[in-house]
């Protein structure tokens, strides 16, 4: 009886400790780290830094820092968070790779079940762009040029599993044309070579392409969304790939927020509540819209809604990646 009573008291004390931890989250003086599994300066890094700023106020002015743990197609940073202490002070901000790495990697060092799903942040349309010296000026001209040159066309991407890689796969399948894929170690060097004319075309996020298109440093041909983009204005005259004959070609790259599995439910709720507040922040919305990103506002901003959405994305992208036969060990 004494042993059972002692055990009961111990369990009760542990539960009270967890409850106190959650009620005080974030504790005064504690820093929250958002791990970005990509290099600084890229589109996902930009979203993380803008979101971190928007989260500070609803998280009682907490200090939020960004940790760029890049490499291995986002798996290094994602693994770091999966193995972190599940207390809410280490989070992951990543993109669609959360749903595609299981298909891209034969030996993934973590499982989807090792995360708490905190909510969707945004969706980012993509656009087909080309080097400034490319002779084609419209989508029909670009399409004809690609089909005439095929494997002579250099299609850049930011590396295995990157948004530009995934969009490039779907573009080649839609055109039924295999191009020469040129992978880079990040978005910045890929875009630099596109602007410099070392590669021909790329399909990338508007968060990365908008300034370059506005500055006339690259050419833009078509967007990947179901409807035309009206904001920013530089996209409003571009056709969608569905308009030009590619039925069901609808690709947006999204970003979500995650915590390690086992993070107390009360802490998960506190972060999700802060996230939903941050997503309504006018300054955050303005920053995202200026780059063509669409801030999430539906049930996918909830923990359960986002988890269901990611599961659907896993099912969507698996066959595309399998058909392409591009894997990493």
From TrEMBL:
A Pfam family this chain is assigned to: TctC
Keywords: Signal
Position of the signal peptide: 1-22
Presence of keyword Signal: yes
Transmembrane segments: none
Gene3D superfamilies in the cross-refs: Bordetella uptake gene, domain 1 (3.40.190.150), Periplasmic binding protein-like II (3.40.190.10)
InterPro entries: BUG (IPR005064), Bug_dom1 (IPR042100)
UniProt keyword Signal present: yes
Family the entry assigns: Belongs to the UPF0065 (bug) family.
Protein name listed in UniProt: Tripartite tricarboxylate transporter substrate-binding protein
Species assigned in the record: Ottowia pentelensis
Organism placement in taxonomy: Bacteria, Pseudomonadati, Pseudomonadota, Betaproteobacteria, Burkholderiales
